[in-house]
TrEMBL record:
Biological process terms in GO annotation: rRNA methylation
Domain SAM-dependent MTase RsmB/NOP-type span(s) in chain numbering: 40-330
Record bears the keyword Methyltransferase: yes
Domain of life of the organism encoding this protein: Eukaryota
Catalytic residues, chain numbering: 261
InterPro entries: MeTrfase_RsmB-F_NOP2_cat (IPR049560), MeTrfase_RsmB-F_NOP2_dom (IPR001678), RCMT (IPR023267), SAM-dependent_MTases_sf (IPR029063)
Organism from which the protein derives: Spermophilus dauricus (Daurian ground squirrel)
SUPFAM superfamilies tied to this protein: S-adenosyl-L-methionine-dependent methyltransferases (SSF53335)
Chain residues that bind S-adenosyl-L-methionine: 135-141, 158, 189, 207
Protein's name in the database: NOP2/Sun RNA methyltransferase 3
PROSITE patterns associated with the record: SAM_MT_RSMB_NOP
Length: 343
């Protein structure tokens, strides 16, 4: 029976994409790629974290998770980790069922890849700040931001109409009406928001469209997969355009976090290095402390950057891929700053 299910799973993996990844990531990740590949091609190894909703807190569920051996993520390990952000992990691949939406009742928890909380924590949103989630669907990071702080204004933008509907449903399912009133949801081209709202936001999150390695591996149509691999070369251009817009939208002194769910160096480190090499008023922010304090729950690959982290899937820590980089817009536009120091 086990052999049959494994055979069925193997047929679902797109060989065109896997071969492409083998060629690229065996060079970029070297010895780590073998383990990363084994996790990526085996959904049975994937893990799901449980983010508890502070607006309808499930005390009974929390006790049940504790009794089942779950442990709380980030507990006391980071300089910025609000107590209102509560997320539980299991060392096993147990997965809670997703909650159904019930009109008038907020959902109690949200299932997510735990690594997707790292960009949220890196942003360090505070009460009263104006924030922009430039590419917000399906809404998990927007939801997590609202677990951390009560912003003065949160602009959640999504250009894709179908994904926009998903974003709206997520917010309506988890967020109470008083807080919904300080959230604006828009369907704008993220590349134009910077010109439309220059120097407006204290914090900007750019969770950019990317290759999304997990889903690409299970593309059923080899012809479409080949086309997407070809299109992949153009993604860094789009990502740079979104970052330019985000930098325009950010006030001087504000903070920007860039993230993707791909391992690709071209979409991660190279995009950030090009950005920092192009803007004299944008500086890298050292976030290596996150890797040092979270290594028990996440596996990090070297990036050669102090401002960038890469979470790679590992056995027992099957989180990621997730790249996170943190930048700050300075008040001065004078001397060009050195970008992402090597270490």
């Amino acid at each position: 029976m086990k052999g049959k299910s494994e055979g069925k799973l193997a047929k679902q993996i797109c060989k065109v994409v896997l071969d492409h990844f083998e060629k690229q990531y065996s060079k970029e990740l070297e010895d780590s790629w073998n383990t990363v590949r084994d996790v990526l091609i085996s959904p049975s190894l994937w893990q799901y974290a449980v983010l508890l909703n502070r607006f309808n807190y499930p005390f009974e569920l929390e006790m049940d998770l504790y009794l089942k051996g779950y442990h709380q993520l980030f507990q006391g390990s980071l300089p910025y980790c609000p107590k209102s952000l509560t997320c539980y992990l299991s060392r096993t691949t147990d997965r809670l069922p997703s909650e159904r939406h019930q009109f008038g009742n907020l959902k109690k928890y949200y299932l997510l890849n735990a690594a997707s909380l790292l960009p949220v924590l890196a942003l360090e949103l505070r009460d009263g700040e104006k924030a922009l989630d430039l590419c917000a669907a399906p809404g998990g990071k927007s939801l997590a931001l609202l677990q951390c702080a009560w912003p003065g204004y949160l602009h959640c933008n999504e250009y894709d109409r179908l994904r926009l509907r998903w974003l709206r449903q997520t917010l309506e399912s988890f967020i109470p009406q008083p807080l919904i009133n300080v959230i604006k949801v828009s369907e704008s081209d993220g590349r134009e928001i910077g010109d439309a709202q220059p120097e407006t936001f204290d914090k900007v999150l750019v969770d950019a469209p990317c290759s999304n390695d997990r889903s690409w591996l299970f593309s059923s149509d080899p012809q479409k997969a080949t086309c997407r691999i070809h299109q992949r070369r153009n993604l860094p251009v789009l990502q740079m355009e979104l970052l330019r817009s985000a930098i325009k939208a950010l006030r001087p002194g504000g903070v920007l976090v860039y993230s993707t769910c791909t391992l690709s160096k071209a979409e991660n480190q190279d995009v950030i290095n090009e950005t920092l090499n192009s803007y004299s008023n944008v500086m890298p922010v050292d976030i290596r402390e996150i890797a040092r304090t979270c290594s028990q729950d996440f596996t990090f690959a070297p990036t050669g950057q102090e401002c960038g982290l890469l979470v790679i899937p590992d056995k027992g820590k099957a989180w990621g891929p997730m790249y996170v980089a943190k930048l700050k817009k300075s008040w001065s536009t004078g001397k060009r700053h050195e970008f992402c120091k090597q270490f």
